[in-house]
Structures are given as C-alpha cells and as structure tokens.
Design a protein that fits this description.
The complex is a heterodimer of chains A (348) and B (789). By secondary structure, chain A is an alpha+beta fold. In chain A, 27% of the residues lie in helices and 26% in strands. Chain A folds into three domains: 35 residues, no CATH class; 127 residues, 60s Ribosomal Protein L30, Chain: A (2-Layer Sandwich); 165 residues, PurM-like C-terminal domain (Phosphoribosyl-aminoimidazole Synthetase, Chain A, domain 2), CATH 3.90.650.10. In chain A, strand 14 and strand 15 form a beta hairpin. Chain A is globular. In chain B, a hairpin with a 5-residue loop joins strand 2 and strand 3. Chain B is built from 25 helices and 31 strands. Chain B has 789 residues and is of the alpha+beta class. The radius of gyration of chain B is 28 Å and the shape is globular. The longest helix of chain B has 27 residues. The chains are: A alpha+beta (348), B alpha+beta (789). At the A-B interface, helix 7 and strand 15 of A face helix 12, strand 22, strand 23, helix 15 and helix 19 of B. Bound molecules: zinc ion (2 copies). One zinc ion binds next to helix 3 of chain B.
Chain lengths: 348, 789
C-alpha cells in the first residue's frame, strides 16, 4: 500500500508520548495557527526548543519564556506530587536555555470533589519550591470542572526568565568533539510511577527524580563553553539526545555502560518490555560542552545533591549526521531512535 | 536459401560478461571461419559483428552459441540485424575481441546485462597450483572459468581496470596468456601469478601486537593441527579457522567469541570423502556441495556427541568444501581435515574486509592472521543451504549466487524499483526491466555498521546495474531501521514510497520463486517468529491467499497475549506463561520452582505477568508459530534463553529428530472468535503439557508437536480451499519456520495424500532474507495495475 500522511482523524494517546507522533501533532497545530519566528527572537517558536528567547527592543534584558501543562496519575507519588512537576518542569525549561528563572504563572483546573487537604499539600509544595529557587508566582487562574470531566487536577505553569549569558543555549549548537554529560540516573521518574502502578516492589524503593535544577546549574549555565543543554522529560534520554543530534546535524556517540541507571529502574523496564532510554525524567539534563570544560562541570555538578551522580557518557562526532549511537559492551553501535509512541516488537 | 553475403550485428543479452563468453565466441567464430569482432557493451550485453556472412552462416552460429555456451552464461535474448554489405578492412581476415565500450541501454531489449557471482576455483587452476612454476601454491590462481567476480568488480563493463585487480599489472608471462585466444586465461580479468599478483602476508600475535613473519603454509597448517586459531582473509570476507574436532579448543573458542551463545559453527572439510565420513550425504547434497557455487550445506551428522561443541543441541552440521586456493593449499599442507570456518566478525557487526579490520577482530583471539592486498569491493558471506534429503532450502543466498537475478516476463514495463527488506538477516533488492536482483546477506541492520553495509550495497547494486529507482519499498513496520532508511531515501531522491505487510511479502517472494502469473492464485502459510501485521499485531502464523496484487488473511493461529513484546522472543518461558494464562491455567502450578530458570527477573516477573494478564492488559497479540515452538521448547527444558536467532525452535527440532519412529496425531482446528477456522495452538500446547506431566519422553513430545502442527496446517489449507470453492493453483510454505525439516516435509506428505502438491522455495530464502525481493514482486503488481487503469 502507498504510504499516506499519518493524518489519522483523531488524536491518540501516543500523540502525547514525546516521540515522533508528538512532533506530528505539534507540527499540525503550529501550521494551523501559522506560528512563525520574528526578527526579535533569538530562539523562536519554530525551533521547538525548551523555551523561547526574545530580545525586546530598547531593553537590556533578554526574555526567556515557556509554558507547560501537567497531569499525572497518581497525583501524589513517591518522591513528589503534581506541584513539584509543575514548578520543576517549567523552571528547568528556562534554565536549559541559559536563563535565570524569575516568575511563574499558575493555572489550576480542579475536578469537583478534589479534597482541600490534597489541594493544600500541592500548594505548599509549590510554595516551598518557589522559596528554594527564588522564583515568584505572579499571576494565576483557577477553574473547577464538574465531576468526570477531567481526572482530579490539571496544572499549567508559564515561566519567565532572563538570559544570563551572551547567547542562549540551543539544541542546534552541539559540535563535533564536544563531551556529553548526563546530570544523574535516567528513567527514575517514569519507572517509579510504573513500579507503583504495576505493584513491582523492590528492596530499595524507587523515587521520582522530580526537582528544579536551580540553583544547581546556575554556575554551569553561565559558562560559555556549554554548547547545548536539554532537560529530559517525556520520551526520556532517547528523545532529548535525538533532538540535539537532529537539530545540530551531528552524531551523539554514547557509551551504554557509562549511563547512570538504578538497577531497579532497569529491572522494571526488563520486566515490562520497555526501553529505559525512552522513560521520562523530571529533574535530569543532558549537557553538551567543549571538552575543556569537563573538569569544571563535573566538579560543580558533584557539589549539588540533585546532580551528584553526573557523568560523562560520550562524545559528539560528525558522522553519521542526525543519529544517536549507543556503543554496547559486546561491540557494535546500536542506533537509538526517537521513540515512536508505544513500543513495537521487532525481534523475529 | 540465400547465399547473399551481408554484414550482421548480433546483440546478446543475459549473463554473458565475465563468464568466458567472448573467448568462447572467438573460438567458435574461428572454428566456423567467420570474420568480425565481439565486444562487451557494459550493461547492454555483448555485441558480435560478422562481416560478409550468409544468413545460413549466422543461423548456424547462433544455434551453436545456444548449444555450447559456457556453464555460467545465461542467454536471455539474441537480436540479429543485417546491415550494409561493406567490409571493414580490419576484419577482412580475422575475428577479434575488441575493447569494451561502456554504453547504456543500447538497442538491447531488456537493457540489462548481469554479472556472475564469485565462482570457486576450477580443477585446471588447482592443477596449476600443484605444478612447479609461477603458480605453484599461488592461491590467487584463477582463469576465465573461475575466481572472484561480484566481490571484486567496481563497475561494468567487467574489464580488469574496473576490478580490484587494477593495481596488479600483468607480468609478461600472464600478458601472453591474456592475449592468446587459445589460452584458458584469454581475457581472464582476474588472472595473475606469484610474479605480478596480490600476495598474502602472515602475522602472529606476540606481546599484544601483530608481528610479521615470512609466509609459510606448512607452519599455518601445523599450528592449526596443534589447536591454534587463525583469522584468514579470503576472497570476499574473513574466517576464523580452527580444528573442528578438537573439542577442547572449540569450546574455548566459543567462550571467547560468543559469550553464552550456542550458535552453530560451519565447518570446511578437505574432501567429499571426509564429509561422507561424518554426515549423511544424499546424491543431491553431494552435487550441491561440489558445485561451483560451493555453499555451506546443512547435513545430518552421524555421531552427535562428536560434534556437540560445534552444534550444541542440534543434529545437523553446516559443511562446505574448499572454494579458493588458500583452502586447498592448507589441506595439502596437512591442516586438519575438518576446520571450523566461521565469519570473523564481532557479533552484530559485518565481518571485516580490510586487513586493519582483520587485525582488530582477531586481537586476543587468533594465534595468527593471514591477510592479502587484493581489495575486497563487496563483502559476501558464505551461502547457507539446508538439505531436506532430496530437496534443499536456501537460508542465506550470498557467495556463488549473488548477484544472479530472477526474471518475470510480466514485469518488463514496470519502473525501476528498490526495496529495503526487514531488519534481521536482511537483504535489499533492486529491480529493472523484469529482472529482480536480491543482494547478498547483509545481516542485522539495527547497528550502524549493518546499516552502513546496507547503504553501500544499495549503491553498489544501483551502479552495477545502472538502476535509478523511481519507487522505494519497505516493510510496514514503522521503526525498522530499513523503514527509516527508506523514508530518508524517498525524501532525498523524490521516490514514491510503498510499504508491504511482512507476511504478504513472504508469500509474494514465494510467488516470484514459482513464477506465478497474474491470474494465478497461491495459498501459503507464512510462518516465522514475528512480523508487523496489517492490524499492528505480532503476526507469525498466517495463512495467506494471494492473487495478483490482492491478498487475504485466510487463517492464523489463535491470537495470544504478547505482553512485553520482544521479551517473549528472548525468554521463551515468558511466552509459555502467557500461553498458560490464555489457556486459563496458573503458570505457578506448572512452572513453580522454575521461575529463576525461565525469567530474567524470576518470581517478581511471573507475578507481574499474572497480575497484568488478570487485569486485562492486552496491548499486542501474537499469532506466531515460531513463538509456539519456542514455548514448547521452554516447557520441555530444551531451551529457556535464546542466545541466537531461532534457537529455541531449532533446538526443539534437533530433539525431535532424535525420535525416528512414525507418529500419528489428531488435527487441531477450531473456529475462532471472528468465525474463521484457526490453527488451535492452545489445544496443541494443552496436549503437550499433559504428555509432559505424564513424563512421556521429551524427543517423542517434540516430534509429536511438529507432526500435529504440520497436519493441522495442511488440513486448514484444504478446508479453506473447499469452503471458498476457489481454484488454488499453488499451495506453499514460506517464512523462517519453512526451514524446519519435519514441519515442511510432513505438511508436504499430508497434502500429497490428498493429491495436493506443496510448493517450496527454490531460489529465494523463505526467511527474512527473501522479504526484499517479495516486496518488489508485490508492489510491481500494484504498479502494473495502476498503470493499466
Ligand atoms: Zn580456473
Ligand atoms: Zn603474472
């Protein structure tokens, strides 16, 4: 059969999975809206980076803007709750562009029947994180929906920051010869939720990695030797690395055994048949930097509890362009693609 | 009868270059006293000019070409035209072979001139190597009848400057042979000798580096006898050699090479007598083993214990006979008569074809390496064929076969196409003017090294056959590396992109193999481990009807929950547990105590599987026959972790072959939820479970499994035909399970009892290596119909 455009008529769950199908969904909406870069954009919406970077005329500050919506089941999980996600996700998107996060807006859509005590716990979490990071909630909106119209609670946060370096940190700026660093173990957030959902109990319990990376990454973000940076969220390590490889037109060559992973997280994936590199994180970043910065970055990252497990995991090479290669222990370099949606078998 | 003398041009199309065709024409013309010339025309075939000849002369000449042509020449078309009767002074008294002209698509009807495969060294060249002189023990000895071809050619026409021998100018003695029409090496493009040709070098691994030593065949043979391992670069790839009957060293080699893998090794034997000493060899097997193609033939062994380290759990051994000078020289110098000859590749990476790659792969493994300076242009693995006694089924179609094309006359107007196959054991294929050309074995392309091999092979084939595809075809699977590659190429080259359902491509490949016509029908079981189904499920046991470009899925196994996807392929015990759950049984009751053996994560994993199943989690379902065989293999304790592709099912068959008596079984068919008849895999497993609990012998149960499956498959075919009252022209079997000798032969026997003939593959592998050419055949039909609308 001839290949049709994958314009299925309805939005499917896998369109939200952070993989190739999500790219299609975003492309569809952007095209309909007619989204375009403007001359004052340092990083415009067409680049689909983590945040937009806008140099407003006649001001000294360069604005960095982003927005994010959050749903999660369950709302309270090991290591955090939806409030952590809402604050950390948006702040991290600002940081990885090279911004100091300043202000948040907070939108809440609450389902009828949601308890005040739960709502209170979420609000307190948000408050504590704002204190810790020095970010202020400056505007908000609240809606209540009838029972059954949505699952418990949905949060939206928009973030505003200012650029604290000459140039924004772009996905498209990785260069051959650069080193690749991951700031901590991958897949903790997704696997900890899965272990809860599927009742997979281990001796040591998995916790979500959700955390704002400010101020942990403050010094690093200021370093001009940082070329690219990305926080891993949906689609996990695979999505983040592929975005950089494709946008920069380079190859990311990664040593599999160097990637920090918790054995329990790995085990869960091996039981469920998932690829840990596609599992979501909420407090981890990939850093691509000039090799001369290696020592400084690692020493700095080790100082902060959020990034103490940081490791150099590979290097950027020029060929094959737009690919992420995983060097395995037994030899051979496996191609790591951007996730497609649900995992599809392939072994004959 | 016309005695009028005219000039004639004769264009010959087919496989007529580099098979000694021009020297043959020259000799024939001289014999008949004809004047003129013969010339290669690149991809347009061979042109013969005859000056001042009668119509009768020409007819007789063409008749004798057809009758006496060289063995490997395939003539597809001869076009004769008369021209004006002037004479060219150059050819007044003689017939010459004149330099090739590189022309494309000249006048010739098919616009196609194929290149022969690599051919094993001929007996005359072997004799040359035994005689003192410039070719004594000179292992690159070749002539117009033998030697490297596909692996050594850079582009057409097939002349020395276009081969990897271009850097080896002929010495005076070789040149004399090359220009002498009466010599066997007249215009032999790969001829050479110890004076002018490529050379081997010998290195030993000492103190963690490779040290060069003077080449000494006797030394190599002696050290092989002492149990040393050698890496040897050959004509189209690299092998590890070691004494196959030294069990200790074979086991040691297995441990270093393939951690925890039971993958069988192939063995190179010095002579057919040695093969007969260790294996059961039918006359058909002997013919195949000794053919100029020299494939590895998988034969039943006489003494299983003797070969166990080479073929763990299996009952058949892959054997080949010497096909290049270096093999003969080693045996003449008394190397062990049976040498393991396995591809010297790092697992998951294609084998090296440059000396540097050979050094790297052999580090810390080989005692020594033998490398040479004749570049290998295309990597070509040994071909692999399984003997079913009288019949043979081709598993890996590579050296000695590729790039020989298949032809179908209903496709001569179809546009040029490229197909990229599937992912494991992959091949690609190109198509032009009715010719289907499958590539050599590419292996697994999930790694970048494999994918690069696929890309360079596509380039090589497109260049050799002058094909610019308008159409590119891929598997329906959205994330196979081949599918991603196809999308990239389609975007770049502005090709029209098509996809084909995996198992439809399997059946189409069988259709091409049988040469089915547009109006003919085929009903075939496409049985294997996994393919992305038209509904996204994991297909692998499908009864498919195909006519022209229309296909239907007529039956299958009962769908089974495939929770965890690929995990079930690697851990057959997990698949078994899902089967038990589907049958309403508690896996703990039957597998209790075996959790650690069957699951990567033991009890934890089984408990999860049960919980998820009971909660109704059903993402993907499988109808795979391969997975049913895997499950039974795990239940019987034959194979619980797969260490190479197909292992659980192959090991199960290995055990079944030990049971030599006849077995009678019921037939297992049931009406499925969708109303169609299905192969009742659940009841088969239930019976097996009962026999297992009653402690019936394992070889009996294994054999029973195969027979019950085969008969049920046969009965389903017959009932499908009867219920539709539709004439089926061909009944067939394809897919990886078609390699299974017991199932294939029992299915054939069962149908024969009902006067129905089962068609097997002949020239195309039934496994995934045949997918790419099946994709071409199916989409070719689609396009032909679009074009006539
Ligand atoms: Zn010869
Ligand atoms: Zn010579």
């Amino acid at each position: 059969m001839k290949i049709q455009n994958e314009n299925k008529e309805i939005v499917e769950l896998s369109h939200g999975g952070g993989g190739k199908r999500m790219d299609q969904l975003i492309g569809f909406i952007s095209k309909k809206i007619g989204i375009r870069n403007s001359s004052e954009d340092l990083v415009g919406p067409e680049e689909t980076d983590d945040s937009a970077v806008i140099k407003i005329r006649n001001t000294s500050n360069t604005l960095v803007l982003t927005t994010d919506s959050h749903t999660i089941d369950p709302v309270f999980f090991k290591g955090g709750n939806i409030g952590d996600l809402a604050v950390a996700g948006t702040i991290n998107d600002l940081i990885v562009m090279g911004a100091k996060p300043l202000y948040l807006t907070l939108g809440m859509i609450i389902e009828e029947g949601f308890t005040f005590s739960d709502l209170g716990r979420i609000a307190e979490t948000i408050g504590n994180l704002c204190k810790k990071t020095g970010v202020r909630i400056v505007a908000g909106d609240t809606k209540v929906m009838p029972r059954g119209m949505l699952s418990s609670i949905v949060l939206n946060t928009s973030g505003v920051g200012v650029l604290i370096r000459e140039e924004p940190i772009k996905d498209s700026n990785a260069k051959p010869g650069d080193i690749i660093i991951v700031t901590g173990t991958i897949g903790d957030h997704g696997t900890s939720l899965l272990s809860l959902r599927e009742g997979l109990q281990f001796d040591t319990e998995l916790e979500s990695d959700v955390t704002p990376l400010w101020p942990a990454l403050e010094k690093i973000v200021r370093d001009p030797r940082i070329h690219s940076m990305k926080d891993m969220t949906r689609g996990g390590f695979a999505s983040a690395t592929n975005e950089i490889a494709v946008k920069s037109g380079v190859c990311l060559e990664i040593n599999e055994e160097k990637i920090p992973m918790r054995p329990e997280a790995k085990a869960i994936c091996e039981i469920l048949g998932l690829e840990i590199m596609e599992i979501s994180c909420e407090g981890r970043a990939i850093i691509i930097a000039d090799p001369s910065a290696e020592q400084d970055i690692i020493q700095e990252l080790r100082k902060h509890p959020e990034t103490k497990d940081a490791r150099i995991i590979g290097k950027v090479i020029s060929e094959p362009k737009k690919k992420v290669l995983i060097k395995t222990e037994i030899g051979g370099k496996r191609i790591l693609d951007k996730p497609f949606g649900e995992p599809i078998p392939r072994v004959c | 009868m016309s005695l009028e003398k005219k000039n004639w041009s004769i264009l010959v199309a087919g496989v007529v270059q580099s098979v000694g065709f021009r020297p043959f024409i020259k000799r024939l013309a001289d014999k008949l006293g004809l004047k003129g010339y013969v010339q290669n025309l690149g991809d347009a075939g061979v042109k013969i000019m005859l000056f001042m000849a009668t119509k009768e002369d020409v007819d007789n000449f063409v008749k004798r070409i057809n009758e006496e042509k060289p063995d490997l020449a395939v003539i597809l078309d001869i076009e004769i035209k008369s021209e004006e009767s002037s004479i060219d002074k150059n050819y007044e008294n003689r017939f010459l072979i004149i330099p090739s002209e590189k022309k494309k698509g000249m006048g010739d009807k098919t616009g196609f001139s194929a290149l022969p495969p690599d051919i094993s060294i001929c007996n005359e060249c072997i004799e040359d190597m035994k005689r003192p002189g410039r070719r004594f023990e000179y292992v690159f000895t070749s002539c117009t009848n033998c030697g490297p071809r596909y692996s050594a050619i850079i582009e057409l026409p097939y002349d020395r400057p276009n081969t990897s021998f271009k850097n080896f100018p002929l010495c005076d003695d070789c040149l004399e042979e090359y220009i002498n029409p009466d010599d066997r090496r007249f215009h032999a493009q790969t001829t050479c000798c110890s004076v002018c040709g490529p050379k081997y070098q010998m290195f030993l691994w000492k103190n963690n580096k490779w040290i060069k030593r003077p080449l000494n065949w006797r030394f190599v043979a002696d050290s092989l006898k002492k149990g040393k391992i050698w890496a040897v670069m050959g004509i189209s790839g690299t092998h590890f050699f070691l004494d196959a009957l030294n069990q200790e060293i074979v086991s040691k080699f297995r441990n270093i090479r393939r951690k925890r893998s039971n993958k069988p090794f192939a063995v190179l034997m010095d002579s057919i007598n040695t093969v007969k000493k260790y294996c059961f060899v039918s006359p058909e097997d002997e013919k195949l083993l000794s053919s100029v193609r020299r494939p590895i033939v998988i034969l039943p062994v006489k003494n299983r214990e003797l070969w166990d380290p080479v073929i763990p759990s299996l009952k058949s051994l892959g054997v080949m006979l010497p096909y290049t000078g270096i093999h003969h020289v080693l045996f003449w110098n008394e190397a062990p008569k049976a040498l393991i000859a396995t591809s010297a590749n790092i697992p998951g990476i294609p084998m090296p074809i440059h000396p540097n790659g050979v050094f790297k792969v052999a580090e810390n493994i080989a005692y020594g390496v033998l490398v040479h300076d004749r570049p290998i242009i295309q990597r070509v693995d040994d071909s692999l064929i399984r003997s079913f006694g009288k019949n043979h089924v081709i598993i890996r179609r590579s050296r000695g076969y590729v790039p020989q094309p298949l032809f179908h006359k209903e496709f001569t107007d179809t546009p040029n196409m490229l197909s990229v196959g599937a992912e494991e054991n992959n091949t690609v294929s190109v198509f032009k003017n009715g010719w289907f050309i499958p590539s050599q074995h590419l292996g697994h392309i999930k790694n970048i090294e494999g994918l690069e091999f696929e890309k360079t092979t596509i380039q090589h084939l497109e260049k050799l056959f002058d094909i610019k595809p308008e159409v590119i075809i891929r598997d329906l699977h959205p994330t196979f590396q081949s599918s991603i590659l196809a999308k990239e190429i389609a975007e770049q080259e502005k090709n029209i992109e098509y996809s084909v359902v995996h198992h439809v491509a399997h059946v189409a490949s069988l259709g091409l193999d049988l040469g089915i016509k547009k109006e003919e029908t085929i009903l075939a079981w496409a049985v294997d481990g996994y393919g992305f189904g038209a509904d996204g499920n994991a297909w692998g046991g499908e009864l498919i009807f195909l006519r022209d470009d229309h296909w239907e899925r007529r039956s299958s196994l009962i769908p089974i929950n495939y929770l965890g996807g690929d995990l079930n392929a690697i851990y057959p015990g997990r698949m078994l547990s899902l089967y038990l759950l589907e049958m309403g049984l508690d896996p703990n009751e039957f597998l209790g105590g075996r959790e650690e053996e069957l699951f990567r994560h033991g009890t934890l994993e089984l408990n999860y599987l049960k919980k998820a199943f009971y909660e109704g989690k059903r993402d993907i379902l499988t109808t795979s026959l391969g997975r049913l065989l895997d499950s039974i293999s795990a239940l019987l304790g034959i194979c619980t972790i797969r260490s190479y592709r197909g292992e659980p099912a192959m090991a199960l068959e290995g055990v079944a072959l030990r049971y030599e008596k006849e077995i009678d079984t019921d037939i297992f068919i049931i009406a499925g939820e969708d109303g169609t008849l299905k192969l009742d895999n659940k009841s088969i497993l239930r019976e097996v479970l009962e026999m297992f609990l009653q402690r019936e012998p394992v070889d009996f149960i294994a054999k029973w499994t195969h027979i019950a499956i085969a008969r049920s498959m046969g009965e389903l075919m017959l009932r499908t035909e009867r219920s539709r009252k539709q004439q089926i022209d061909y009944f067939g079997i394809t897919g990886g399970v078609a390699y299974n000798k017991i199932i294939s032969l029992e299915l054939s026997r069962f149908l024969k009892e009902q006067d129905v003939k089962l068609s097997f593959h002949n020239n195309i592998p039934p496994g995934d290596a045949g997918i790419s050419v099946g994709q071409l055949f199916f989409i070719g039909r689609v396009i032909n119909n679009e074009n006539t609308k």
